[in-house]
Protein 1
Amino acid sequence: MRIDESDQEAFVSWVREQARKEPRTLRTQRRPRLEDLRCHPDLCERLHATLIDIPGAKQRYVCGFPVLLHADGLVFGVAAGTSWMALRLPEIARGAVVRTRWGTRRLGGDWIDVDPWLTDVPAHDGTRRLHGWCHAAYEYTSPEISTP
């Protein structure tokens, strides 16, 4: 699937800067080759686990980075390395997330760096919070709701 670049300038710019080779078009993959993966497999699984009960959302890979996306190609989540995740969130939800303390990757616009592991809270509560944030990002990024 080709990534819709029209409503995602911050993500498109960021992923093109991070890519090992400048892609002509951004396309998703179901699974990249292991040597092309830009995220630890445990974090890829953590990102994928957030999709429970989010209808139509999928995890795919763009330039080796795992992303969460709508069926129409809008990206609402991305992860990299061993401890970095960002979600596309509305202003009102930004105070509710736990920001990462492991460094940011300066993905601008309405993208917020979040702590994917939430080590300071019980595991079940951390998973529930992360799922809630991803659901909010999915709703916010929905083409029917979001505005350019």
Note: The chain has a mean pLDDT of 87.
Protein 2
Amino acid sequence: MFFITGMSTFTWVLLAYVGLHLGHDYVSYFKGLSLDSIILTHHISPERDFVIRVRELFLIIGSFALFIEIAKAATSTKFGPTETLLSFIISIVFVVMFFMVSWAQNATFLILAMMSLIDATGGFIIELKAAKRDISIG
């Protein structure tokens, strides 16, 4: 149960992104998959197509992960400093990878890193607000 509620959802997003780039050697399904691979194409009209690539799929999943994390922080009674610390660690890993790893230096990864930082900061603010409500000074 810890892997679902205790870990940051962005941990799984980061692992999926790393798996996409490093999994070519180990997972045969990832051999031809890249950020520009097309997942879905829908013909809206004769001259327009709706296309979702892997990069857009990561942004959609990242948006859902951000929603889940903020909802988890705002509604959970057991949300504590360990979850916030883990969120900050994941945010730091995102930022370090953005600057240090060549395949992570793109707009998709930067937006995912910003979402992770918003998650960590939002969890911290919610936790401080709950602590302020629990302890009344003056």
Note: The first helix runs from residue 2 to 6.
Protein 3
Amino acid sequence: MKTIQKYLKAILPIMLMVSVLSACSKPGANTANDVQALNKQFIDAWNSKDSEKIVGFLADDVHFLQGKTHYTGKAEVSQKWVRETLPTLSDLKTYTVSSTIDDKTAYEAGIYSVDVLPDSPQEPRGVGAGNFILLWKKTADDSWKLSYAQLEGMPVIAKR
């Protein structure tokens, strides 16, 4: 009997904390997994070279930064980042370091790697890598749109 009492005394605070935390959580509350799923859809569209789907993810006031390059607005980002860059890359992979989501914003940050396609068949493929951050915002119609993308890459190296 004393063993059961000791067990109950030890587990009671844990059960109480779980009850309090689950009571504070809203059913269907946003989680970091939600933003990772959103980013996966974006990366899958990129890897399948579906420029229209990628552009569909962009907010009207999106910003894209890479080094000293800064594009602003859906039209400029669509043309100069998505449509001009998409044919030159393949097999984009991201590795999450940090992500979070709330009712209006979500972000994911980490590192990426991508194959850089050669300009001609005689040239080798390259590998690009660096850091990324993708910031999403929820719109009035409850859809998520990419509001800010920043890539900081290392120099491309030849792939062997």
Note: Confidence is low (pLDDT under 50) at residues 1-29.
Protein 4
Amino acid sequence: MPLDTELGKKMLQLITSRYDDRHWRKQIEKTLSLPQTGVTDPVQQQIFVYLKHGLKAYKSRRADPDSWIIGGYATKEVINRAKFQPQLVGASLKQDDVAFLGTDPGADVTEAWWEEMLVQWFDVPEEEKLAEQENSQAENSDSSSTIKAKA
């Protein structure tokens, strides 16, 4: 199940407040490389996509993996633009929607919390897992019956 509103808020606070801490740069880069479908709240998803595009380093047209500009003036500029001009992030966003950006998420956000957040990002609810298993079993039984018919 993707991140709920509270986890999404902490994740965005982590990205926008600890970017100058060398210890957190790799984790922030890893988080930015994740798909935006891991964030359920539509407002937070817009903010995440804005940060993802705003912090992407210039790339040539080669098929290099994404890289990020984390730390320094450019990162601060992207975050301040989001905070003070929320309409750049999304047309319907208000100042209240982005007010939490740049504030530290608290002492409980540690590497262990970050690892748990990653698990939550990609976790699939049990109902979806069961439905996927049933679909794959049905497909496998169909293909095995056609193989037997051909033999």
Note: The radius of gyration is 20 Å.
